[in-house]
Design a protein that fits this description.
- The chain is of the alpha/beta class.
- It folds into 5 domains: 1-41 and 148-173, no CATH class; 45-143, Beta Barrel (OB fold (Dihydrolipoamide Acetyltransferase, E2P)), CATH 2.40.50; 177-233 and 637-673, no CATH class; 239-430, Rossmann fold (3-Layer(aba) Sandwich), CATH 3.40.50.300; 440-600 and 602-619, Rossmann fold (3-Layer(aba) Sandwich).
- Helices cover 38% and strands 20% of the residues.
- The protein contains 23 helices and 23 strands.
- Strands 12-11-13-10-14-16-9-17 form an 8-stranded mixed sheet, sandwiched between helices. It has a 6-stranded parallel sheet with strand order 18-23-22-19-21-20, sandwiched between helices.
- The radius of gyration is 31 Å and the shape is globular.
- It starts with 14 loop residues before the first helix and ends in a 6-residue tail after the last helix.
- Residues 460-612 form the Helicase C-terminal domain.
- It catalyses: ATP + H2O = ADP + phosphate + H(+); Couples ATP hydrolysis with the unwinding of duplex DNA by translocating in the 3'-5' direction.
């Protein structure tokens, strides 16, 4: 039996258990051993029966003198047993578990672990764990640190414990894929010891050592995957060579109505260096809300344009694509750059004479031909599938030649995490806001202050002729709104119309057609509506300078970075702006998170905090952002991330030193086809 063997080769795993294990993402022997305990019951204290005291958590071993079901007047069943050893007898009780009398038999020797209490004035072990000692001296369910696993319906910790023990007794010949020098230098056990310590440790320090080695393995394979992808990409030839004329670029800068920030200048410089190379660029532009990613993308597009080639920009939503289309039109107004919009609903401009294609995933599916694409820009790239991105790149390339790729995200990701998850990409960061942006005052609004907040909002709108957003959270964590969620925001919209009677409200959600969305947005931009009620699916791409108030309902349901992004929809004009976080939660943890938002304007600081408090799936707003979920390792463990990256790079540079690791890499299909 090998680590790569299917879980179906394990005894007691039939079709029913296969389906259950699938829910835990367990399909191989290795998957099961990587499904480590999340805690342990400490049953290490073993006591003679006569010494057991009420309140103690102990393990006793003895002969079962009697066991029976007792039926109460209320229709419940109590299981009572009497167990003896050479020092005395003790009573054991369970509640409503009649099957126990068919498992534990009179005259047999068993071990019992649990808490002693007084029951019917007798010292009693109440609902203890148990296992037969007829054929063995030591147990796995009693008398030790007993592993408790994350489970699912129909799979108990006891079942997982038994299967892990069965495997570890039969996988004594696990060959470690790392050279001994590597794991010993890091103070880690070998692979077999790591599995054993993680599941059945002698002490909690052992458990941590075992889990740390397995966490290292997990990170190592993520790093290898990224580095292999980067290595494979470097074998591509660029589709079109781009030359940069500094005078023309300076002319472009002079047409802008603002100066670039220091980080924008640095990012543009890094991109321009890439565009001159024979190997196509593959860069991630990570920017805080309002940091000006579109202008950086426009600068790259301008280089493509002056060289006589095309750019393709793909955005995840129709609204964001529309926003980019309009922004690029304004930026390139004096240069006669032809921009086309392609969405599932409409196509703007003459596609035969296009310099920049802007669109949604319709860019992939519509019969639009790209003749001379030198640059592909993918915005909010985590919202697209790997295949969608690959399809667009392939469609834009020329045979075995690839275009330059610039991917962008407004979701701040801590650098150590970004270098692991997006290790195949070069990283540019925009970490400052353009000059003149006023700080946004942020308030946490508890239930008792809601009415007062509504009155203040009405006063601001009527007195200063400003506008407001009200964002309602998704009911379920998903990238796509369900009809249930659309209904919920529609109900909230009707309620808010009564609260803000006399004001005009607009409703925006992801299930509307592009025409309806555009009409709603146009009414908001032209100040025909004072309040826009929306779902977070449309959190990006709405830029209205007169909107100075952002109200976020159910703020506790959002990650800090997503709250920060939503807050970034206001504060884009010259008027003081506000963000009100409405929450019904009384949790101190929730309050700590929301108060942190009050004190910080940096999305990167907030991402670091949310990473520590809630994990990566949360700081990205949802768990469906294409962000890898780690089973054992933690994204906060920067030391282990750095170590795993160093080993991955060494393995890539000197594969002859890592023959077993390279063999596993190839068997895991880490190397791209």
């Amino acid at each position: 039996m090998k680590l790569s063997s299917s879980i179906r080769t394990l005894p007691l795993v039939g079709p029913i258990y296969l389906r259950r294990l699938e829910k835990l993402e367990i399909s191989t022997i290795e998957d099961l051993l990587m499904h480590v305990p999340n805690r342990f019951d400490d049953f290490r204290v073993t006591s003679p029966i006569s010494k057991v005291q009420p309140g103690e958590v102990v393990t006793i071993k003895g002969k079962v003198e009697s066991i029976k079901n007792i039926y109460t007047h209320r229709g419940k069943i109590i299981q009572k047993a009497e167990v003896s050893d050479s020092t005395g007898k003790i009573q054991i009780s369970w509640f409503n578990q009649p099957f126990i009398t068919r498992t534990i038999h009179k005259g047999e020797t068993f071990a019992f672990s649990g808490k002693a209490d007084l029951f019917d004035r007798k010292i009693t072990l109440v609902s203890p764990a148990y296992e037969s000692m007829e054929d063995k001296q030591d147990g796995i369910h009693t008398g030790r640190l007993v592993p408790i696993y994350p489970g699912t319906s129909g799979i108990s910790s006891k079942w997982l414990r038994g299967r892990a023990n069965y495997l570890l007794n039969r996988l004594l010949a696990i060959n470690d894929f790392l050279p001994e020098k590597i794991y010993k230098n890091f103070g880690m056990p070998n692979l077999f010891q790591a599995f054993t310590k993680a599941h059945f440790p002698e002490n909690l320090e052992d458990a941590q050592r075992g889990k740390r080695r397995l966490a290292f393995n997990e990170l190592l394979f993520y790093q290898l995957k990224s580095l292999y992808r980067k290595n494979e990409w470097s074998k591509n030839k660029v589709a079109h060579k781009l030359l940069l004329d500094k005078k023309v670029y300076e002319e472009f800068l002079h047409t802008l109505s603002f100066d670039l920030t220091r980080s924008q200048i640095k990012a543009v410089s890094e991109i321009f260096e890439d565009l001159k190379k024979e190997i196509p660029m593959n860069r991630l532009l990570e920017g805080d809300v309002g940091s000006g990613k579109t202008v950086v993308a426009a600068a790259a597009s301008f280089v493509s344009f002056v060289n006589g080639f095309q750019t393709v920009l793909m955005a995840p939503t129709q609204i964001l694509a529309q926003q980019h289309y309009e922004t690029l039109h304004k930026i390139f107004d004096k240069f006669k750059v032809r921009v086309s919009l392609i969405t599932s609903d409409k196509v703007k401009a003459d596609l035969g004479k296009t310099d920049i294609f802007v669109g949604t995933h319709a860019l992939i599916h519509k019969k639009v031909k790209f003749d001379n694409v030198s640059l592909v820009i993918i915005d909010e790239q985590h919202r697209f599938g790997v295949e969608q991105r690959a399809h667009l790149v392939k469609k834009s390339g020329r045979g075995n030649r690839a275009p330059h790729i610039l991917t962008m995200t407004a979701t701040p990701i801590p650098r150590t995490v970004a270098l692991t998850v997006y290790g195949d990409l070069d990283l540019s960061t925009l970490d400052e806001l353009p000059k003149g942006r006023l700080p946004i005052t942020t308030w946490v609004v508890p239930p008792q202050k809601r009415v007062g907040a509504y009155n203040w909002i009405r006063e601001q709108i009527t007195k200063y002729s400003v506008q407001a957003f009200i964002v309602c959270p998704l009911i379920e964590e998903s990238q796509v709104e369900t009809m249930k969620e659309v209904k919920a925001v529609t109900v909230e919209f009707e309620k808010l119309k009564k609260i803000f009677s006399g004001l005009n409200l607009g409703l925006l959600h992801g299930r509307q057609t592009l025409k309806v969305k555009n009409d709603v947005l146009e009414d908001f931009r032209e100040k025909k509506t004072q309040i826009l009620v929306a779902t977070p699916v449309v959190e990006v791409g709405i830029d209205v300078a007169n909107a100075t108030i952002m109200i976020i309902e159910g703020a506790e349901r959002f990650g800090l970075a997503q709250l920060h992004q939503l807050r970034g929809r206001v504060g884009r004009g010259e008027t003081k702006s506000y963000c009100l976080l409405f929450t019904e939660s009384h949790s101190s943890t929730v309050r700590t998170r929301l108060v942190a938002l009050k004190g910080s304007m940096s999305g990167f600081e907030l991402a670091e905090l949310d990473l520590k408090m809630r994990g990566p799936g949360e700081f990205l707003g949802t768990k469906q952002h294409g962000f890898p979920e780690l089973k054992i390792a933690l994204w906060t463990d920067t030391e282990l991330i750095k170590k795993s990256r160093a080993v991955a790079q060494e393995a890539l540079d000197h594969p002859e030193k890592f023959p077993k690791l390279i063999e596993i890499i190839e068997s895991k299909s880490i190397v791209p086809n």
